[in-house]
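Re: Re: token formats

Sure, here are both.
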Amino acid sequence: MHFDETYMQLALDKAWKYQGLTYPNPAVGAVVTRDGKILAIEAHQKAGTSHAEVLALLSAYETLSQTTVNFDIYDAKKAHQFLLGLPPEFFSECTIYVTLEPCSHEGRTPSCASLLQSLDLARVVIGTVDPIVGHAGGSQKLKNVTLGILEEECQALLEPFVIWQKRAFVLFKLAQTSNGRIGGGYLSSKASLRHVHQLREVCDTLLIGGNTVRVDRPTLDCRFTGAKAPNIKIYSKDRDFDKDIPLFNVPDREVDIVESLDFLHEPSFVMVEGGEGMLKALQKRLDWILIYQTPKLSTNDLSYNIDMNLTFLHQEKKDVDMILWSRQVGD
């Protein structure tokens, strides 16, 4: 069991790198082993492309065969066809670890549960069952299944996916120095800035406060990824804004000024960028806070002057920065 937890943790760590970026799909990680040796560690990366299990099996195939596949591994249909065309016993001595129960349904991609059933691996180790009605049941198609390894951690990884099925998942992004200061221009590394723009690229709405718009005059685009800029909602009772502020002049985007947060009742992914005022206004409606902490100290006066208890869900490095996925706890 100790080894099961070790391999599942590797799958979790890989999946967290794509947390949010797979919207509207969940973040999922997978590891393939044989005789105690790790053959592959992969994660689902983008909705509509190959799932974590498929990417891990393709990587394991390359490791075992010492060859490279000659097709787009993110094309799920081609990937499934390739894996199903391998000799029946190819993966018979392998174990796959996956943070979420393999999908049983056919959607934009073929069923991973059916694929694993055909490949007949020695073991399938699953972190948590699929909570969505109509999607679950994949494990029942499989033999030699172990369920519930690091289940609590796998459910935490899955939490945004569960929330945005029924209402908006609200993620507040903030960047700060190691002593909690937030002013003075860009604080984050290029890797962190790119990650922010990747999240902007996939979210339904980027929410920002009116005061931040007026003071910072931001653009709020995706220039570090080259993608379409997100649609913006400005939360403000005063609808008077200087329309020369850059965010109003980004092509192919919608900018709405709203006085109510009722739109958060609709299933979606809402990313929030703002200062202390916006954080306080949303304190009761935030799901997670994503902190980009840069290793520097600053004398700037600006900070988030608020009482809030957090629990850290996951942490990783982005260049020199530490990024902390966190959830509010208590009152």
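Second one below.
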Amino acid sequence: MGNDDERGNERDNERGVATKTRPKTKKPSQYRVLLLNDDYTPMEFVVGLLMGVFKKTQEEATKIMMDVHQNGIGICGIYTFEVAETKVAQVLDAAKRHDHPLKCTLEKT
């Protein structure tokens, strides 16, 4: 019988710490905003868009514009989906208002 009491005491002494497991917060997916080259949209217009919509410096905007011009595509930035989608819409809207065929899209990183 003494053994039962000892086991009971052991059980009483085994106290655990209650922990609440938190679900891991998932980092939001990121998307590249891309400009695609065309033969009609003026380079100055593209630089202006990059500075206005993407808050690039003149130097950064010129480099991206040259990437678009020379390689057919350029990365404007990497953003969460909602921000990327908004920036694509702003670019397409500005291009349409100025009658330029500039294309802008996004892709998941």
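Residues 22 and 28 are 18 Å apart (CA to CA). The radius of gyration is 28 Å.
- S.
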